[in-house]
Write a structure and sequence with these properties.
This is Translation initiation factor IF2/IF5. The chain is an alpha+beta fold. It has helices at residues 3-10, 13-26, 56-63, 67-78, 97-112, and strands at 44-47, 50-53, 82-85, 88-92, 122-125, 132-137, 143-147. Bound molecules: zinc ion. The site of zinc ion (ZN) has 8 residues, from loops. Zinc ion (ZN) binds at residues 114, 116-117, 119, 137, 139-140, 142.
Length: 149
């Protein structure tokens, strides 16, 4: 008999569910069966009326997008000017780390991760269709329109 079995036996259903919840809350944002891809958490810092994202390079590398394009997205979502300076993003305004993480996560979900195969090996093409990008998945070949920004 191993220790893990003993633990499960003595837990009530409620405790066991709580334990499961905790395990899932620690999991990456995407479910593990789909991908082991982890969206980098935003490292941000508020100074005065500006917010700096210090790890924009890490985020853009992971997304395989130019930092400028992510800056443009953030600028649109937050409705403030955003500057890319010395490998950091400077946002005009005070934004919580939680809000920034939510927006970055949405960026990955819509513009990076293929909705067909859930892999992040994609790129965006801006074709003739105004207001739309085409997301092209290099892993499974899917391509579909996403709203441009
Ligand atoms: Zn795909």
């Amino acid at each position: 008999m191993n220790i893990e079995n003993i633990c499960v036996v003595i837990l009530t259903d409620e405790e066991y569910l709580k334990l499961l919840d905790r395990a899932f809350s620690k999991a990456p944002e995407l479910s593990a069966e789909k991908s082991d891809f982890v969206i980098p958490p935003v490292e941000s810092m508020i100074q005065g009326n500006r917010t700096t994202i210090r790890n924009i390079m890490q985020i853009s590398d992971k997304a395989r997008r130019e930092p400028d394009t992510i800056a443009k997205y953030l600028s649109k979502e937050l409705s403030v000017p955003v500057n890319y300076e010395e490998q950091r993003l400077i946002l005009n305004g005070r934004f919580s780390n939680e809000d920034l993480n939510r927006i970055i996560r949405r960026y990955f979900e819509v513009y990076v991760i293929c909705r067909e195969c859930h892999k992040p090996d994609t790129h965006l093409e801006s074709g003739s269709n105004r207001g739309m990008f085409t997301l092209v998945c290099e892993a499974c070949g899917a391509h579909y329109g996403v709203k441009s920004y």
